[in-house]
Amino acid sequence: MSQLKAALTPARLLDESGRLVRGATAPDAETLLEGYRGLVFARRLNEQAGALVRQGRLAVYPSSRGQEACQVACASVLEEGDWLFPTYRDTAAIVARGVDPVEALTLLRGDWHCGYDPNEHKVAPQATPLATQLLHAVGVGHAARLKGENTVVMALCGDGATSEGDFHEACNFAAVFRVPVVFFVQNNKYAISVPLARQSVAPSLAAKAIGYGMPGIRVDGNDLPALEKVLGEAVARARAGEGPTLVEADTYRIDSHTNADDASRYRADDEVNDWLPRDPLLRVRTYLKAKGTLDDAREQEIADAAEEMAAAVRAGVGAETPVDPEEIFAHVYATPTPQLAEQRAVLRAELEEA
Amino acid sequence: MSTPKMTMAQAINAALRDAIAQDDSVVVFGEDVAQLGGVFRVTDGLHREFGESRVFDTPLAESGIVGMAVGMAMNGMRPVVEMQFDAFAYPAFEQIVSHVAKLGNRTRGKVRLPIVIRIPYAGGIGGVEHHCDSSEAYYAHTPGLTVVAPATNADAYGLLRAAIASPDPVVFLEPKKHYFAKEEVDVSVPVPPIGRAVVRRPGKDATLIAYGPSVPVALAAAAQAATEGRDLGVIDLRSIVPFDDETVCAEVRRTGRAVVVAEAPGFASVASEIAARVGERCFHHLEAPVRRVTGFDVPYPAPKLEHHFLPGVDRILDAVDTLQWEDAA
Ligand SMILES: Cc1ncc(C[n+]2csc(CCOP(=O)(O)OP(=O)(O)O)c2C)c(N)n1
Ligand SMILES: [Mg+2]
């Protein structure tokens, strides 16, 4: 019964007004301050990327505004050797993991499909085909176990993606093989226009875990310390050889699906407005201010650093970096086939003629 | 009265609306097709007009969508399902290949599946990865599937009506780059049936064979060639399966030269099949080998590189130049 309760009632540490909930152990102030910095960076990245789309510098941007606590927490609970499997919406998490934001935005800028080296930061390429990456995450985790490594894999997906067959297969494989993976579902209530009620009538998404034989935990997705606690415990379980966990974050997609989407066609402004006071950033700020951990000087220092990051993103994304047309042939196989070499020569001749 | 102008999205929308209105067994479902009206607005307004029982969103699962369509068709309905993008149809591949395509044959024709699988298709829209695949070869290679690719908005209307009426399952490939381009469409004028190609431009020197998004590119190449004194004809296949050997071969026998144009990578492609068929059937009429101008054999490139991949006017005219004109004295 307590299993079901954990899967239904979101775990919380900070309430919407930034106060510690009754009976909760206070989070470590310095850790939370670090988290606050992450939130400010993630928010600034979302805003900056949105602006770059409007200027035509990025083709498209799926924003994680409102979900920044999820983005920060899923990266902060990982060790250096762990892996992160993100989706198209998780650029801020990738950056929180240490990937250069300009490299992370290469996909959306339209230069190449994946702009960073997945091995360098142990971050898989952002997955667009929904839920497919969850099985890859299981594979990385299972290989780690077979090789005797103590790697943990953090696998991200959205509420909509939980309807795909691959989600089911990944959960089941992970549970059967006791794979050290954490499935982290950011339930932001929409899959483009389709509301959660059309994805599932299960008591919660976390409750699905029970059917697979793994723990399912629901957590307030706008509560950074609660997320870090729940995800941290799931990572610890995985590392200790106790198998996978399904964590569902109760959160909300504040922006449209992408800039190309018009959310007014399917949801009321009132609904969005109801979520604004639950902002993940404000909550931590209020708490840290009240505690005296975040004074004006520190706040300014963090804001300045975020501004510096945004300036670097503007400069990097805005720079006229040439793309090499011939690169389309370079990586298809480890060694290009004779046919590709021939086709490359055709393109080169065209380019030389032009 | 002048003929109304419609985009291809509107023409498809009109076909769906008319089919739903005229046949109680037609149902439309998929991802984001109801309230949103589809990410390309192809189903705009249909949910409002016909209600949830005729037009509805499903949970997010393509295998589920197509698999459920199989069962609904077994129970007398005519499902028209939408895959959101070409590359997002792949989770449904098992259902399409093992069931949609085969059930009629497995049951000696006792169970027919009048299903239409609509797929926004091909490139040229600057889409990030997985949004621009040309996947026709997978379907065309699967016996049991009818594969249709309209190139004009009038055909989009007429062919979709025919697809919905067909007793067989149809994969209906909608060139995305055409969705928002306006053309005159008179829905009261019938278009040729599925399986018939159309000569879009007669020509006496060589024949360009194209379908879907490559038809306007072939027409542009023919227009350019005309200014250089070469008279190229253009055939729009309209339907890949069934293939109209008759129309294609009649034209090629007349001109003696042919170039096939398609966006998909050329290796083991529909373009290859066309070149082989034309070679076999028209050998004694050909002045030169049939050429293919296709995408390169690489995954669809990122937006900034796609124009290097897509077959364009220059590449088509270069191919035409190689058709051994020096022998034709
Ligand atoms: C297999 C597949 N089908 C359809 C799509 C198109 N698509 C992209 S995002 C999306 C909605 C996903 O919703 P959710 O999983 O809740 O994630 P969110 O976008 O809300 O973060 C859809 C339908 C896709 N990318 N992959
Ligand atoms: Mg969602």
Automatic annotation (TrEMBL), chain A:
Gene3D superfamilies: 3.40.50.970. It comes from the Bacteria. GO terms for molecular function: magnesium ion binding; oxidoreductase activity, acting on the aldehyde or oxo group of donors, disulfide as acceptor. Keywords: Oxidoreductase, Pyruvate, Thiamine pyrophosphate. Its cofactor is thiamine diphosphate. InterPro entries: Alpha-ketoacid_DH_E1_comp (IPR050771), DH_E1 (IPR001017), PdhA/BkdA (IPR017596), THDP-binding (IPR029061). It holds the Pfam family E1_dh. GO terms for biological process: branched-chain amino acid catabolic process. Residues 42-308 form the Dehydrogenase E1 component domain. PANTHER family: 2-OXOISOVALERATE DEHYDROGENASE SUBUNIT ALPHA, MITOCHONDRIAL. NCBIfam families: PDH_E1_alph_x. This is Pyruvate dehydrogenase. The lineage of its organism: Bacteria, Bacillati, Actinomycetota, Actinomycetes, Pseudonocardiales.
Automatic annotation (TrEMBL), chain B:
The keyword Methyltransferase does not apply. Keywords: Oxidoreductase. It comes from the Bacteria. Its EC number is 1.2.4.4. Gene3D superfamilies: 3.40.50.920, 3.40.50.970. The keyword Oxidoreductase applies. InterPro entries: THDP-binding, Transketo_C/PFOR_II, Transketolase-like_Pyr-bd, Transketolase_C. GO terms for molecular function: branched-chain 2-oxo acid dehydrogenase activity; magnesium ion binding. Its cofactor is thiamine diphosphate. One of its GO terms (biological process) is branched-chain amino acid catabolic process. Residues 6-181 form the Transketolase-like pyrimidine-binding domain. Pfam families: Transket_pyr, Transketolase_C. SMART domains: Transket_pyr (SM00861). This is 3-methyl-2-oxobutanoate dehydrogenase (2-methylpropanoyl-transferring). It comes from Lentzea aerocolonigenes (Lechevalieria aerocolonigenes).
